[in-house]
Every structure is written in structure tokens, then in C-alpha cells.
User: Fold this.
Amino acid sequence: MIISLAKLTILRLLMDDSIEQRIRNVMSAVFQISADEINEDSSSDTITSWDSLKHFNMVMALEEEFNIEFGSEEIADLLDFRRIKLVLLKDLDTGK
Amino acid sequence: MGEDIPKNIRSVKYADILKYNKELGDYLESNFYNIAVFSNITINQIKEICEYSLRTEGINAHVQIGDYNNIVQSSIKFKQSNIIVVFWEASNIINSMPFKIESLDDDQQDAILKKTKQEIDLLLRNLQKTPLILFNKFTTIQFSNFNIRENKYDRLVGQLNQYIENNLTANVRLVDLEKVIATVGVEKSLDFRHFYSSKMLYSVAFFKTYVEYIKPIIMGANGKAKKALIFDCDNTLWKGILGEDGFKNIEMSQETSDGAVFAEIQSIAMSLIKQGVLIGLCSKNNPEDVDEVIKDHPDMQLRDEDFTIIRSNWLDKVSNLKSIAQELNIGLDSMVVVDDSPFEVNLVREALPEITALQVPEELHKYPELLRRNIGLFYNLSVTAEDSKKVEIYKHQKLRESVKQEYHDIEDYFTSLGMKITICQEDESIIQRISQLTQKTNQFNLTTKRYTEGDIRNLNVMDNSKVIAFSVSDKFGDIGVTGVCIIIIDKSKTACIDTFLISCRIIGRNIEFVLMDYLINTLKDNGINSVKAKYIKTSKNSQVRDFYDKCSFVPTTITDLLKEYVLDINDYKPSKINYIEVING
Assistant:
């Protein structure tokens, strides 16, 4: 998935704080860590409890939280906070 | 806990379930209730959903998932659990089973059937001492719902279901998975995105409904089933207001559309009576008006003999409900109340939060569904002979109370009753009832240990344990099997009283002391030197805190939560009660 820098900036400007916070809350509940510990760089490499099962739990929790359904390729991609945010914004935008 | 945690899991988001579940787990201090789930597919999402749902009810559930696709092996590893749930997915017995089976010849099909039957046998044999097994019925609905033709997969699954139904052991309850899937909808239940890669088949929505479906069984096994259903009258048992519309204009007949709703409500109540649920009335009305309806209204299905208790007066609802609980001798948390007035419902929820209060919906057609949806609250693991006699037994109780008023001296009154205790030991026919008593008795229960039928059977066959139950009768009638003692004897000729309980129906008649006399005498005859006993505190059994002290046991440990005792059998002081006869049955 290639996204131009310009588009990224626009996305960032549009990014609703509350959406970021909601992602953090979901990740915090799934991985059993405090929401404050989750930042832009959090990923399956930095969060030790992030195994394949927790990954599915996170996917299901995010889908329920945002009332969307990820495609299976997207699911494989959701391995860090930044990409989760991007994919979510795209899906919310296209009304998926 | 600071914030209110919702109990209806279908309204709680999965992320919140995960979050609150951890908090609840840290908060609950009671013993673990161990649940193991076995499956040949990936069902791990059930863990937190199930734990959360039970933890909100005060059951400290701890769910473990068996080894993937190794149901028989798991049954050895986890047989010590309190309860086992079996998710045996027919479609995964062999890969692509629903369609591959069409290419198999008869011998190959028979081999699959035979192997699966053998595995079921092995599983049930390994789990014969496990208190409770919830076994999902096999279903083809996930993969065969568009298959119009008669096919081999449907047939094989039918044969498997037939087999488990014919080979059920007493500790197994079948779960109708198709009902759960139908409630959620087939498409919403299934999520194939991770099926081909990870064998995950079911959605979060499915697991929430599944857990809601099996919850009453687990609540029942933990002594948390509701016992009484108390109705308001106007616009709750019938349409209309008796005091304003009058006898002739209230409706509960099948012939009118509104009346038919209330006719169904009364039919539901009647069906609950058959399961041993106590039905009561609590309503602001003139008592003689209500009596007239109960006696003479042609459309009433519930009659005087069906109501265990009636409170029609002008007192406030909260006082009435408290006095109902007292008269029935049950906890407020064993009661469900139905009322059409939002004011009364809120009042009850505020003042008596232990009571489950149901509000009659404004749209009347939703009312029967509300009641049907809550029938599970009264789920009884097993319905016994005592359940169907319940109303009669409570009525006799009322009679006893009125006679009691005539006596100045309580001993004279007891003597007039002509009480008889019949002891029954290792009696196969009452195992169900014994198990039910351990599950339902909260007040006069020294240790509050819950046992299933399977547990009681095991205790009966063990050499070092004795299960003693007894029934009580008096001149008013037979009260049925109403008490249980379980004794464990160790090598040094010491007996431990594992369980000592009597039903609330016979509390307050000194029966417990006569029973203790009998118990000690029997133990003495069997060469026992000393007896150990325990009082384990719960929120409901404070009335028996000093029971063993009264029976001349000597305390060795006294804390707020636990009292331990020992008794040198020669130091026992008999009660000297002579108005209760003990008969060896």
C-alpha cells in the first residue's frame, strides 16, 4: 500500500483525536497494557503480548468499535498503530 | 467496583468485555469456577466473553481452552474442571467434510462414523467424574444451509446426534447449537475470513449469544437460579385496571388481541409452576376484588391453588416484597418481579437492587417475548418430584403458621405437629433431589458446597464417604426430601462433616438438632472417635454461624470467614428433643 506524503498529511489533519483514542482504548483492552503506553510506533514488535490470537481479538474488537469489516488482506497488514489508523481511516472514508 | 458493569453481554462491546473482565477477575475473591472448552476448531474468543458474563454474576469463572483438535486428549488433561463445554464441529471431523463425504464409499463413511462414536465414548468415559458437561449437538447448518438435496453430510450428522442422545450420561446436557445460530442469524454467526487459515469459524456476536444461552445452566449449578416470580395485577396479569374498569371489563381472554397477550403470560406462569417456580401476586388493589377475579373470572388460568403467595393491599411495593421474601423464606436475589408501572419498577431497582425487576413493555406484543427471554433465570438443572409439589407444600406451611398462633408454648406446638424424619441412605431415586438441595440451599447450609448428580453418585460409591438425606413429614403432610449431610471418614477414625444443610421449608423446628443426634449416634456405632466440622461464611448463611457451638462442638479456628471445630464423640451432649421421631428408611 503506497500512500503519497501529501495525502498522508491531509489524512493526519483530518484525523480525529477521538478516533486515535478509540484505537488506543481497544488496543489497551486487548493487549492488557495501559492506553498511555500506546503511541504511533507501537507494533507487534514492541508489544510483547501481541500474538496471533490477540491479533484476531484486536481485529474483532476494532470492527465492532468502528462498525466496519476489514478485508483479509487488510487484516494481515494491521501490525502497527500507524497502519491500523490508516486502514481504519480509509475504510471509514469509503464507508466499508 | 466504582462503575456499573452491564450484565447483558450482547450490549457490551468486545473491547469493553476484555477490559472489564480483567478488572472483575482482579476484584472477585471467591474460588475459581473452572471451565474447560474443547474443540476441533479455534474457539478462543469464548474465553473472555464467558468469563465476563459469569463474573458479573459473582461467579469467578476461569476458562481454559483445550488442545486444538484434540478433544479426547483434552478430556484427560482437564477432567478436574467444574464444567466442560464441547464444541465438536462436524464439518471439521475430516477436512472439507460436508463435501468430501460425497466422494467416499460406504465403508469409508462407516469408518468415520465409527471412529467419531468411539471418540465420543472415550470422551464421556474420561469425564465420568466431571460434574457437568455441556455438549453441543452436531449441526450442518454452517455449510449445508443452501444444500437442497438430501445429502450424506446431513445424514451422518443426524446419526451422530442420535448416537449421543442414546448414550447420554447423567452429567451431560445437550446444547442446541442451531437455536443459538438461528438467534444470531447464520450469516452473522459465521466469519469465514479466518476459517481456511486458522479454523476460526464463529463471530464475536455468536459467542455472546452462545454464552447467554448456556449461562442459566451454569447459574443453576452455582445455586443462583431464581425461585419466585411475583406479578403485579393490573396491566400485568390482565389488561385493564380492576378498580376502575371493573371485573367484567378486564381482559385476559384468547378472544381479544390484547387479552391474548395476557392469556399467554398466564400460560407461561403455569408452565413455570410445573418446573417448581413459585408464583406470587403483589399489587395495590382491594384484596376482596382480587380474590374475586382469582376465584370467579372465567378467563383466569391462574387460580388460588397456583399462587404461593398473594399480597393485595395498599402498602408500598418494597415493604410487600420484603415480607414476601420473608414468608417464602427465600433471598431477595431469588425473586423476579414483573410490573407495568415504570415508577414501581424503578423503585424496586433502587431500593432492592438484588431483585430482578422486569417492566412490562409499552408495546404489548413484546411482553410475552420479554418473559420467554427471561425463563432461563429459573433454570433448574433437574426438575424433581419435590418441585411439582411445591405450591402444596408452601400452602401447608401457611396452615402450620396459623395453627402456631394458637399455642403459647412453642414446644407444645412442635409436639402437636407429630414430626417424623425418615433417613434415606444411598438411595438412587433421590440423587437428583440431593444434588438440587446442595445447589439451591443458601441459608441453613454450613459449607455451601454445590454438587451435581454426578458428584453425588461418586460420593455414594466411595468407601470413605457417606451421603445421608432425609425427608420430613408431619400431620399436615409430606414435606419431601429436605436435608442432606455428607460425611467423609479418614483413616484415623475421624469423620469430617463436609455438608450439613436443611431446606428453608423446615427451618425453625429444631429438626437440625435431632438430625445431629442421629448423625453422632450413627458415627459412634461405626467406631468413630472424633468429628471435625466447618462453618464457611457466605452472604446468606449467618443464621448458622453458631450452629456447631450449640451442638457442643469445640472451636479450633475462628475467623470472620471460617470457623473450624472438633468434637470428641464421647463429649457430645444430645438435644433431648422427644417430639420428633426418626425412622430409618
